[in-house]
Amino acid sequence: MPGFLEENSTVPCKVVVNAEEQYSVWPVDRDTPDGWHDEGFTGPRADCLAHIDEIWTDMRPKSLR
Q1: What is the spatial distance between Cα 32 and Cα 6, in angstroms, rounded to a whole number?
Q2: CA nearest 65: which of 53, 49, 57, 51?
Q3: For the whole model, what pTM was predicted?
Q4: pLDDT at residue 59 in the model
Q5: Which of 3, 20, 39, 64 is the most buried if burial means most Cβ atoms within 10 Å?
Q6: Around Cβ 37, how many Cβ atoms within 10 Å?
Q7: What is the mean pLDDT of the chain?
Q8: Where residue 31 sits, what CATH number does that domain have?
Q9: Beta carbons within 8 Å of 36's beta carbon, 6+ residues apart
Q10: Could you report the per-residue pLDDT of 28-48, keeping only the tens digit for each?
């Protein structure tokens, strides 16, 4: 099975977000890292990245906006 970080990975992933409203992709079968919570979107890595591209329109951390 390919690693979840590979561009063409089909490993099920979820979108996670931190307190600074920064987004990332994380494997569904792993515990969400401390300081992050599930955003609600799951799917293949490419779909998660496309979702992040749609919703994360301001890349600055929340504290700098």
Answers
A1: 19
A2: 57
A3: 0.84
A4: 87
A5: 39
A6: 11
A7: 90
A8: 3.90.820.10
A9: 16, 17, 18, 24, 26
A10: 999 999 999 999 999 999 999
- Report if residue 59 sits inside a domain: yes
User: In the Cβ-directed half-sphere of 30, how many Cα atoms lie within 13 Å?
Assistant: 15
The pLDDT, as a whole number, for residue 60 is 86
Query: Residue 59's domain spans which residues?
Result: 13-64
Q: Rounded to an integer, what distance in angstroms lies between the CA atom of residue 40 and that of residue 20? A: 17
| Element (DSSP H or E) covering residue 42 | strand 36-43
Contact 50, 33 (CB under 8 A): no
44 is written with which tokens? 């293949």
Number of domains in the chain: 1
Residue 52 has pLDDT above 60, yes or no: yes
